[in-house]
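Exam prep: given the inputs below (a chain plus magnesium ion), describe the expected output before reading on.
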Amino acid sequence: MNIRNISIIAHVDHGKTTLVDFLLRQAGTFAQHQSVTDRVMDSGDLERERGITILAKNTAVQVGDTKINIVDTPGHADFGGEVERIMNMVDGALLLVDAAEGALPQTRFVLQKALAQDLKIIVVINKVDRPEVRGTGRMQEVINQVFDLFVELGANEDQADFPIVFACSREGWCTTNEEEVPLLLSKEMKGDLKPIFDLVLEKVPAPKVEDVGGFQMMVSNISYSDYLGSLAIGRIRSGSIKKGARLIRKSENENRQETSESFSADKIFTFQGLKQVEVDELVAGDIGIVSGTDGFKIGDTVVSDAVVPALPRIAVEKPTLAMIFSVNTSPFSGREGEAVQSRKLRDRLMREVRGNVALRFEDTEAPDQFRVLARGELQLAILIEQMRREGMEFMVAKPVVIQTKGPNGETLEPIETVVMDIPEEVMGDVSQLFQKRKGILTSYEPFPGQNEASRKRLRLEFDIPTRGLLGTRSKFMTVTKGEGIISSFLKGFEEVRGEFLHRINGSLISDRTGKMVEYAMLGLEDRGVFFFPPNTEVYEGMVVGEHTRDNDLNVNVCREKKLTNIRAASADTFVVLAGLRKMTLETCIEWIDEDEWIEITPQNVRVRKKVLASNMRSTVRVDRG
Ligand SMILES: Nc1nc2c(ncn2[C@@H]2O[C@H](COP(=O)(O)OP(=O)(O)OP(=O)(O)O)[C@@H](O)[C@H]2O)c(=O)[nH]1
Ligand SMILES: [Mg+2]
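Solution:
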């Protein structure tokens, strides 16, 4: 059997999953009558809701007598661990680059990982239909930029001599000849993705098969089946097995000591289109799926014989953020979901960490609080969202950046390079936003490839502590009116840049338990903005809004109007609250301070003070720089 194993890698939104749709369609994976949803690989609920890929996923197509295993990966930096863990499954990668946006931070990250694995890389200049690209010479600029990136990342001569394809993945065509692009765009020529299939077959080497004295497969991904339990997905390096074979899972325990577990591979599968089909045999070179134990951990090696060595575990970049997860101790605990006990919360988090190489788990001094280390706020938000959809109630604290010590004992903090494209007119506001948080502007240029007609846009780069970047995404979106794009990469660790204000405003806090009353809220309107509408149930210590000043304010939001006469009451119904600020999970994560928790239930997200009783806590927030 001829096999090729490739991954599709890129910065977020550059069109990976859309390209996979058309690779599947054109390889005849779907029957004629079958209607296929867009971005069919984004099968998770949260993926579909948010329009982004979160987990790397496998598929496979048949082209002539060759099977091409394809791994679609996420492009958002927070899910970079997904890209890292699948790299050892493949021998080649399609590196997509948006023809207008060019190479961005995650392009660099994924390319660096691909080069380190010595993958054969095919560069796909995608979205050539974008108006900013047509007739501007932008495609050549982007090719040069990508070439420079290869060189900067230490690519060898062979790697830097990459084949180039120009594509419109949304319409399912591509060409290796730049001059054909206008003809394809104007539909004078009809195109398809054959040039990509051809290049994969020609340039990506067939999987190297070793013989290490038996079956050997590294677990690069774990999925779950209701019938079979845990499933290990990985590329078979050596040997073959038949269904039902006795296997050994070589792993390590918490103290890094080797462990092993025997099991029998009751069922084995390979990928075929979007399906996992049961097979009788798995052979070296292919990507296979093995069932038989619930113990699989990413990075384990599955072997047929004790003498077959374990492969080195997958090494990934270290987490940069830590967040405390706690049992829900709020007065409403257990009302809207299952208020899980610490044991169950711990088990749930441990399970997540087993299947996600980019996360780490730590116990804390408190028996009902656990620390999860992650890559970013979005990664944590996705985990939280998943847990609440499972019906759980719990609390999380403000994420904190993980600092390290320098050679002379000085404290170092992570610094990121932020790249953003913004409309020119918001330049001042954007600079102010980042400079207030110790950001330093390092590059400023008109957005490349603009034509006369397009609005003036700028590309800016800042160096900024990760600490300063936390909680700025939604502010950035507000300041740029949703027209900015922003991404970043970890530049390294530098000496701590000093204090700055995380949040200027204090909280409005309910001083009692009850229901919010419109009359009371109107009376407090000039004190700040509320997060909830009237009739919301509140408890003492629950944050109901943001104060206009920098201290906290305990307020009575439950005060009823004394009914002196009926007329006044009816007149009031015409008064409407000026505005509520709806706080989503992500805005809460950005907003909260150290002395607050986010309480999460299947129905609600609330911010509360860690200390609930108003007479037990200060309203002066001294930690505010
Ligand atoms: N103009 C244009 N838009 C495209 C093209 N290909 C994809 N898009 C759009 O770009 C957006 C992102 O596409 P996806 O396929 O989800 O991108 P992705 O790289 O998989 O994104 P992540 O997995 O979240 O990193 C969608 O709105 C697509 O419709 C293209 O060739 N031209
Ligand atoms: Mg995607």
